[in-house]
Amino acid sequence: MFPQEAMPGIIYGDSLPVHNELDAVAEGYVKAIGNGNFSKLTTVWKEGLTHIYATYLGKRPEKFTYQGKEYTPRSFAGSLGLNADDYISITSFTHHPFYTEFAIEVPDNWRNGLSWNLPMDEMMEVIDYAVRNEFTVAWASDVSELGFSRDGIAVVPVDNPTDLTGSDMARWTGLSATDKRKELTSRPLPEKEITQEMRQITYDNWETTDDHGMLIYGVAQDQHGKDYFMVKNSWGTNNKYEGIWYASKAFVSYKTTNIVVHKEGIPKAIAKKIGLN
């Protein structure tokens, strides 16, 4: 683990890594090796891949100085007092029994990490309890929905949010996906009522996709007194709320893949159900 300032930074002039180009270069490299029908691989092919990532993301330093003290990546991680065993992954799906652990069947779970399976309402209770008791929540979510905007809003509007008819419906049908997203997130609109069954259906039919990780850290209210979770995102600060997203509880309950939270951020009654007490 490193503090941000210990990394060399991006040397090609952009404020964020250009992942599309990096992915294309790395994929081309790996495919050339994987599809090469070589009788034997050299001992340096992994080093070549490492150099691709180091070129785009910066070379990992073996040692660095932070606040006047020298560290290695391992000694710095140890200095932070973080114990990975204190953090619990939680999800909510019905194709596995509740109050048991299973490996969520999505591409990003390539390590087959286990998550505790809770009913949707209890998963949401954990998130709300955690942030109201000064714990943050790592949040994995589908961000490809029309209700998730690049301008800092995540909601689940009803299918015809303004009861469109006639010419208004024709205009709505003709909008691009980008313009529909703006329309749906430009002002508070009625949202769908989310059920456990809806979560499962969209997971089973691949409509809920395994997209992105963010950090839930608080609760805010809109002008009508409706609660939203406050979310830190990694897409830069060039948006309406300078890098912060406001995700409705409907969106979080519908499109959460899983969360990770400190075990003390879980209500005691729920912690007991999964054997943490």
How would you describe the overall organization of this protein?
With 277 residues, the chain is an alpha+beta fold. It has nine helices and eleven strands. The protein has helices spanning 19-34, 45-57, 73-79, 120-132, 166-174, 177-185, 196-204, 249-255, 268-273; strands spanning 64-66, 69-71, 87-91, 101-103, 114-117, 137-141, 153-154, 212-221, 227-232, 244-248, 256-262. Strands 4-5-3-11-6-8-9-10-7 form a nine-stranded mixed β-sheet, covered by helices on one side. It has a two-stranded antiparallel ribbon with strand order 1-2. Helix 1 runs antiparallel to helix 2. The longest helix is centred in the N-terminal third of the chain and has 16 residues, at 19-34. The chain is globular, with a radius of gyration of 22 Å. The two termini are 30 Å apart. The mean pLDDT is 90.
Report the uncertain regions: none
User: What is the overall silhouette?
Assistant: globular
| Oligomer category | single chain
Structural class: alpha+beta
Order of helices and strands: HHEEHEEEHEEHHHEEEHEH
- What separation lies between the terminal Cα atoms? 30 Å
Which bin fits the share of residues in helices? 25-40%
DSSP E strands, number: 11
Mean pLDDT across all residues, rounded?
90
Cross-sheet strand order for the largest sheet: 4-5-3-11-6-8-9-10-7
The number of helices is: 9
Strand composition percent: 15-25%
User: Whole-number radius of gyration?
Assistant: 22 Å
What kind of sheet is the major sheet?
9 strands, mixed
